[in-house]
Amino acid sequence: AVTITDDNTGTYTFAETYSSSPIVTLGAYATDGGVVNVFITDLNTQSVTFQTSAPFTGTVYLQVLLIGSA
């Protein structure tokens, strides 16, 4: 999870390096009462960068999946 404070971008570095880009899903939980969409702007074998539709305060939760071998 990535904590966001009055911002609309973030990056999560994976715990391991993948041989190909994994599948990543994102979900935003706003603690400031806002409602935002979150989408991936960059994905590679080491990290994912995302942006939200508006600045908010809360948490972006990630699910990282790889089908096959790492």
Number of strands: 4
- What is the SS-derived class? mainly beta
Helix share bin: under 10%
Tell the overall outline. elongated
- Mean of the pLDDT scores? 94
Q: Report how far apart the termini are.
A: 21 Å
Figure out the total of helices.
0
What fraction strand? over 45%
Radius of gyration from CA coordinates: 13 Å
Major β-sheet profile: 4 strands, antiparallel
What are the low-pLDDT stretches, counting only 5+ consecutive residues below 50? none
What is the N-to-C order of secondary-structure elements (H for helix, E for strand)?
EEEE
Question: What this model shows, in words?
Answer:
Strands 1, 2, 3 and 4 form a four-stranded antiparallel beta sheet that branches. 10% of the residues are buried. The chain is mainly β and 70 residues long. It has strands at 2-13, 23-30, 38-43, 47-65. β3 (38-43) and β4 (47-65) form a beta hairpin. It is built from no helices and four strands. The chain starts with a strand and ends in a 5-residue tail after the last strand.
Any descriptors?
70 residues, mainly beta, 4-stranded antiparallel sheet, 64% strand
Short account of what is shown:
With 70 residues, the protein is mainly beta.
Write the topology of this structure.
Blueprint (H helix, E strand, L loop, with lengths): L1 E12 L9 E8 L7 E6 L3 E19 L5
Antiparallel strand pairs: 1-4, 2-4, 3-4
